[in-house]
């Protein structure tokens, strides 16, 4: 035993010596960084601080110094992170807190900055710098509230919080000795006398931690006395964190968030936390060094800021010509959708070396980007240049365009016509005069801008310009006042717009000129132009197409005559109809269709869109309306677009059944009920497919509505629709690299429960390598095989064959066969087999929650039609999931295929519930929405926050609507564990108007039934006790009557005198329905009975 004590003492001394050596060298490295900082070499200083952190681990001082270096480099987001990390290791480090306050200020996080400064002044009342900054920020807050941060993030870490423990490597050099990777049995017991010469491993491995029996036979005497393992509270926190990590392994465990909840476990997780901090430090520095380090140079290079938040995957592959030209001219900083994208954009927008801004998609008009738009407008007014191009014109609706221009930019620009013709430069335009390299003329398919001054147009139609279309007659362009490329002075700067939807090569120079990068830069005006010179209405609308608007006199100085409210509404409807071709309602409730040309992006094929068009005789009194429903981009559901549709008797109708009458009267928009549809994806040979496979199309239309996507953007829009019931890929276009995003979205659609068939022209028009490559994107091992005519024989054991007994047992077909499949995927087999490889012409397999099918028939055999219908699940009607006579409730969960989670939290509950009612879960979003109107639906249980994902936005809106119309929605099970602070409050506030927030961490509390709650009054005391113990998540901000149970003797949760009310079980009315919350993750015993009572099943 004395030998062990002696060994322990030696190791303590070795550990102490190593710590001192590391600290001394880290201090020397830090001092070198400080010297660089003093000389103004902030990037060099940051590099040294990063090196020190990698060498000796993160310390509060090193992280704080790194935060200051990043601040000086204008990298405020990275500075904020580093300062927060420093505070986590030392919450009382006021210098780091001040640096975080400064970073927060620069990121417009004013209220959070105030919190830090108030903390500093409370500890150092004489801190003049903090006092001055606090005064300055409070002045800003009087007119700009900045960006909000939730209370937890704002206050973390509190000044009096316990510091997170740092991790120190093992004490001796031979502790890092890995040897032959087999653990040494002597090293951590009595000690290994061979040291680093031992052929076995002295380093920790996966068996050194956790519950596995450790081969090292640890003795606590060999560990530091003050470690977490000797503190019972820290041991309990470590166990809780370990339980969380065990559960979250399958759910992407977030260590930092877990430590915020269990800070006493920081010692247990110190090694992993150190690794994460170092990884983040290295990543931030690498990005700054490669893309932003240039800012630290004495003469910083200029850059263009590219904002493309939600359409980058579509923008990037189809704008390669533009991006290449931009990067050859100037540095390009791209900002895409990310948790910090707004802050990143704001930071770059404030940099002095910003040359101009390219806004490449219309997502910026969304409310969450309001602060960014305000700063963007300020940037232009102060002399900057902003161009709206790329995907902007393809994905913005006419009303949104008009509103954005008017309210954000003060311009009366209107969304104009949409067609292709040839344009020429306008010498009256300032950009044209400054950029002689612009193409003198070129053909462009474009969204035009109306209501502009003549000099705002960069390009105008050539003399005698005619409509260029494969569909319409080449009629002469009547209204030449509109332009596809425009610019206008806003303050001292320049705003431009390009409506080109096909990314013509000549448009690259147009955009470069707009950004001031072609021939001459866009110099700011010495002073802002007068209102008269920038008002686009001063020119007045064209009388050729629109007629007089009545807004100005001939000299543009007379004011409008006062109009009544009804006159204004009528005028707006007429203006919109004349401008866009929308259907409007006349005074006698008849639908009228205006005679404008096609409007709206992606409506090249009239027979595919159903827009109103002018007939060939060019007579304004003759209007043709195509007899198919709208499919163009941004017209997914007719009720959302207001375009006219045609009934069976070829008369344009309005969907009065679902369109509120006041909506029709106020907007003049005709509405059509949406319905389920099959999407035909024909991105290369739509006309050929329609001609050869007419029999299939006809059969499909007898079963369901059919929509055809002939462009990638059309396909992407339709794939987001809740009404899509299947996808039919019919040509080789899907194999092209430019359509890779469409392919990815189809794969996602199938895995989420959709049905997709690959067939039509695809087998015959796609090369074998491309067939194999395309199929690999679906994750199946299928490969292109032989091309031959053989007999196809049905596999009677395939599930699709069993469900559809009417299918042909065998028929002859010429097909491109596949190989590499599994036996259960064989739908029709090649007979006899012509090759050594097992081949088949028709396959069907399960993919995620849905199915993928392949039909290699190249001659459109009549037998194939029913096979395609069967693969799309349209041949034999589906068996009803819910009997009409039985009550049911639905569980909305993303865990239905994760056995571990289901076994732990839900399976026993479901078994019990099935004795009382039908329980449905694992349904597709479309099926859930279908069942919401059922009178037999008792309610909905939502078990996790997957419903808050953007792809489930429509489902959430329908669930909210269901609750308000009389249904019951309950959030329970692991929802309270999985939802984040930033998700919880907006969910209930924005959808139900409830300002709820939840308390961090579960509370083990005795609770008593609340006699004032409507649910509590219904509950049977014999089934649910009046008082019991609950360990759950509590929600605060509730009204007293909302609490089903009241916590006892917990003033932090329930104190009427302070208007403080919280509960872990809530039930309240929401309009005609009910909303429940259960903050306990287990659906057992009393909790189960409470839920049954909520949905009326008790």
TrEMBL record:
PROSITE patterns: TPR, ZF_C3H1. GO terms for cellular component: protein folding chaperone complex. Residues 178-205 form the C3H1-type domain. This is C3H1-type domain-containing protein. Residues 5-36 form a coiled coil. Residues 523-553 have a biased composition (Low complexity). It comes from Psilocybe cyanescens. It comes from the Eukaryota. GO terms for molecular function: zinc ion binding. Keywords: Coiled coil, Metal-binding, TPR repeat, Zinc, Zinc-finger.
């Amino acid at each position: 035993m004395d030998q062990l004590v002696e060994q322990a003492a030696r190791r303590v001394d070795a550990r102490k010596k190593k710590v001192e050596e590391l600290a001394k060298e880290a201090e020397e490295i830090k001092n070198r960084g400080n010297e660089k900082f003093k000389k103004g070499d902030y990037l060099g200083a940051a590099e040294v601080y990063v090196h020190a952190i990698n060498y000796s681990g993160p310390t509060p001082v090193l992280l704080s110094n790194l935060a200051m270096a990043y601040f000086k480099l204008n990298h405020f987001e990275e500075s904020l992170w580093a300062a927060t990390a420093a505070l986590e290791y030392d919450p009382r480090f006021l210098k780091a807190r001040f640096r975080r306050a400064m970073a927060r200020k620069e990121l417009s996080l004013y209220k959070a900055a105030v919190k830090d400064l108030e903390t500093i002044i409370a500890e150092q009342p004489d801190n003049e710098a903090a006092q001055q900054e606090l005064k300055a920020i409070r002045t800003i807050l009087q007119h700009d509230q900045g960006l909000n941060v939730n209370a937890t993030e704002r206050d973390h870490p509190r000044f009096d919080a316990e510091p997170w423990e740092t991790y120190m490597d093992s004490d001796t050099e031979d502790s890092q000795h890995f040897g032959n990777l087999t653990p040494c049995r002597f090293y951590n017991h009595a000690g290994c006398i061979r040291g680093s010469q031992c052929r076995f491993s002295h380093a920790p491995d996966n068996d050194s931690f956790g519950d596995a029996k450790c081969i090292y036979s640890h003795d606590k005497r060999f560990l530091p006395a003050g470690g977490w393992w000797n503190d019972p509270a820290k041991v309990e926190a470590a166990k809780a964190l370990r339980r969380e990590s065990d559960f979250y392994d399958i759910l992407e465990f977030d260590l930092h968030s877990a430590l915020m909840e269990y800070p006493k476990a920081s010692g247990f997780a110190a090694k992993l936390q150190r690794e994460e901090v170092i990884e983040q430090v290295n990543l931030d520095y690498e990005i700054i060094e490669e893309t932003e380090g240039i800012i630290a140079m004495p003469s910083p290079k200029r850059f263009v800021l590219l904002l493309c938040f939600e359409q980058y995957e579509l923008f990037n592959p189809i704008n390669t010509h533009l991006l290449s030209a931009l990067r050859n001219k100037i540095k390009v900083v791209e900002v895409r959708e990310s948790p910090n994208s707004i802050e990143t954009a704001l930071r770059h927008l404030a940099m002095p070396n910003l040359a101009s801004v390219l806004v490449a998609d219309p997502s910026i008009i969304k409310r969450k980007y309001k602060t960014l738009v305000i700063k963007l407008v300020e940037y232009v007014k102060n002399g900057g240049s902003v161009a709206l191009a790329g995907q902007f014109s393809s994905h913005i609706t006419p009303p949104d365009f008009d509103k954005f221009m008017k309210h954000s930019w003060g311009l009366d620009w209107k969304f104009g016509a949409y067609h292709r013709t040839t344009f020429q430069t306008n010498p009256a335009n300032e950009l044209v005069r400054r950029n002689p390299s612009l193409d003198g003329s070129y053909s462009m398919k474009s969204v035009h801008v109306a209501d502009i001054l003549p000099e705002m147009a960069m390009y105008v139609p050539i003399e005698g310009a005619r409509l260029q279309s494969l569909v319409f007659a080449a009629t002469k362009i009547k209204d030449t006042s509109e332009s596809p490329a425009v610019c206008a002075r806003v303050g001292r700067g320049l705003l431009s717009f390009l409506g080109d939807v096909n990314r013509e090569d000549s448009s690259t120079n147009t955009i470069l000129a707009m950004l001031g990068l072609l021939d001459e830069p866009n110099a700011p005006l010495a002073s802002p132009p007068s209102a008269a010179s920038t008002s686009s209405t001063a020119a007045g609308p064209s009388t050729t197409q629109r007629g007089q608007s009545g807004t100005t006199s001939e000299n543009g100085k007379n004011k409008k005559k006062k109009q009544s409210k009804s006159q204004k509404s009528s005028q707006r409807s007429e203006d919109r109809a004349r401008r866009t071709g929308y259907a409007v309602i006349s005074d006698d409730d008849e639908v009228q269709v205006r005679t404008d040309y096609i409007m709206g992006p992606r409506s090249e094929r009239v027979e595919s869109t159903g827009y109103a068009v002018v007939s060939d005789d060019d007579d304004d009194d003759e209007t043709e309306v195509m007899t198919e429903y709208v499919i163009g981009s941004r017209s997914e559901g007719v009720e959302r677009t207001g375009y006219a549709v045609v009934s069976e008797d070829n008369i344009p109708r309005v969907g009065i059944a679902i369109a509120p009458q006041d909506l029709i009267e106020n907007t003049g928009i005709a509405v059509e009920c949406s319905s389920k549809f099959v999407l035909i994806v024909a991105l290369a040979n739509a006309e050929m497919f329609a001609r050869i496979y007419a029999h299939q199309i006809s059969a499909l239309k007898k079963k369901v509505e059919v929509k055809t996507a002939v462009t990638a953007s059309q396909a992407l829009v339709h794939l987001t629709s809740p009404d899509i019931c299947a996808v039919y890929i019919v040509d080789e276009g899907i194999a092209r690299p430019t359509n890779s995003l469409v392919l990815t979205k189809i794969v996602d659609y199938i895995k989420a429960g959709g049905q997709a068939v690959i067939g039509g022209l695809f087998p015959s028009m796609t090369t074998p390598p491309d067939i194999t490559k395309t199929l690999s994107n679906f994750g199946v091992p299928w490969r292109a095989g032989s091309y031959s005519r053989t007999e196809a024989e049905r596999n009677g054991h395939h599930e699709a064959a069993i469900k559809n007994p009417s299918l042909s047992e065998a028929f002859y077909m010429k097909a491109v066969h596949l190989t590499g499949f599994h036996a259960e995927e064989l739908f029709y087999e090649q007979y006899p087999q012509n090759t050594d490889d097992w081949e088949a012409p028709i396959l069907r397999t399960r993919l995620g929650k849905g199915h993928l099918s392949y039909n290699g028939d190249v001659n459109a055999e009549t037998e194939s039609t029913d096979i395609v219908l069967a693969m799309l699940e349209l041949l034999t009607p589906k068996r009803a999931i819910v009997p009409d006579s039985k009550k049911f409730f639905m569980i909305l969960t993303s865990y239905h295929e994760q056995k571990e989670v289901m076994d732990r939290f839900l399976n026993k509950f479901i078994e019990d519930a099935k004795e009382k009612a039908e329980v449905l879960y694992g349904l597709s979003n479309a099926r859930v929405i279908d069942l919401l109107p059922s009178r037999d639906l008792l309610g909905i249980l939502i078990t996790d926050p997957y419903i808050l994902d953007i792809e489930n936005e429509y489902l959430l809106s329908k669930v909210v609507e269901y609750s308000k119309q009389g249904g019951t929605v309950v959030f329970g099970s692991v929802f309270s564990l999985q939802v984040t602070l930033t998700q919880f409050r907006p969910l209930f506030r924005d959808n139900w108007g409830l300002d709820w927030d939840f308390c961090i961490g579960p509370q083990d509390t005795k609770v008593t039934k609340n006699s004032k709650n409507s649910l509590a009054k219904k509950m049977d005391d014999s089934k649910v006790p009046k008082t019991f113990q609950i360990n759950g998540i509590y929600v605060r901000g509730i009204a007293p009557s909302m609490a089903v149970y009241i916590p006892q003797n917990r003033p932090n949760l329930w104190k009427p005198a302070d208007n403080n009310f919280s509960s872990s079980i809530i039930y309240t009315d929401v309009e005609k329905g009910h909303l429940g919350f259960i903050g306990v993750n287990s659906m057992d015993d009393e909790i189960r009975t409470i839920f049954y009572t909520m949905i009326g099943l008790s």
